[in-house]
Automatic annotation (TrEMBL):
Gene3D superfamilies: Vaccinia Virus protein VP39 (3.40.50.150). InterPro entries: HHMT-like, SAM-dependent_MTases_sf. GO terms for biological process: methylation. Keywords: Methyltransferase, S-adenosyl-L-methionine, Transferase. Coiled coil: none annotated. The keyword Zinc-finger does not apply. It comes from Mesitornis unicolor (brown roatelo). Monomer. Pfam families: Methyltransf_23 (PF13489). The keyword S-adenosyl-L-methionine applies. This is Histamine N-methyltransferase. It comes from the Eukaryota. SUPFAM superfamilies: S-adenosyl-L-methionine-dependent methyltransferases.
């Protein structure tokens, strides 16, 4: 139903990174609406990511009917800019994929971007599910993790709580996902070391963390609410929630 009957579909990506997911969605829109123009705007603060996204577009021969406009800003900077200009462009589709962890004021951010939706527009939020191992790790085993350098730990219930307070309609779709973290438990394994860095948000976690903290975290990762065992491998639950806001 997205953009039905329109000659141009306006899309806004918030925190789009290097653009791979954006282009997948744009191609789905192209297939659903052949011949329709797609006006795609992107909010992304990281200059390296913006450059990589532009390069991806330059190499794609199938995007002639898609226009691109990058805003090298954070979501809050974009919001401030829009409010200062007093102009309010409306979008048929806005997506925020795995980016709300870094947003300071989630209530204000969701309220603003919801106000940017056109009639029949949709906002897609993808965030870690409450059924994920991350949720258990953050809630039950936070003492096993170093303090976060920036951002905060949130899962889908934090988002739906805000949407309820805003009084907007939404639906939640669960997306099961597993991540093989077996190498995290192999002493001296380089891949396992990188995985632990990612899990903790800490560079060289295994090399810098006290042995007791390392052991507690490895024990927590093996708990059934975080991981399951399959064919001798340890599979961390990486389940996602896809929240579609009307």
């Amino acid at each position: 139903s997205l953009g039905n009957g329109k000659s141009t579909i306006n899309v806004l990506g918030v925190g789009s990174g290097t653009g791979e997911q954006d282009l997948k969605m744009i191609r789905i829109l192209q297939a659903a609406h052949p011949g329709v123009l797609i006006d795609n705007e992107i909010i992304e603060p990281n200059p390296q990511h913006v450059a990589a996204y532009k390069e991806l577009v330059n190499q794609a021969p199938d995007l002639q009917k898609v226009s691109f406009l990058w805003h090298q800003l954070t979501s809050s900077e974009y919001e401030q800019q829009v409010k200062e200009k007093g102009t309010h462009k409306k979008f048929d589709f806005i997506h925020m994929i795995q980016m709300l962890y870094r947003v300071e004021d989630i209530h204000s951010t969701l309220k603003f971007f919801h106000s940017c939706l056109d009639h029949h527009g949709k906002l897609l939020i993808i965030i870690l599910s409450d059924s994920s191992g991350w949720a258990s790790l953050w809630k039950k085993y936070r003492h096993c993790l170093p303090p976060p350098d920036s951002g905060h730990y949130i899962t889908s219930s934090s988002i739906t709580d805000v949407l309820k307070r805003l009084g907007v309609e939404y639906r939640v779709y669960e997306f099961p996902s597993g991540w093989d973290i077996t190498e995290c438990f192999i002493e001296g394994d380089a891949v396992g070391g990188h995985m632990m860095d990612f899990l903790t948000g800490t560079k060289d976690f295994l090399g810098t963390a006290p042995p007791g903290l390392r052991q507690r975290l490895q024990e927590a990762l093996c708990q059934p609410e975080c991981s399951s065992k399959k064919d001798g491998r340890i599979i961390f639950s990486n389940n996602l929630s896809m929240v579609v806001v009307e």
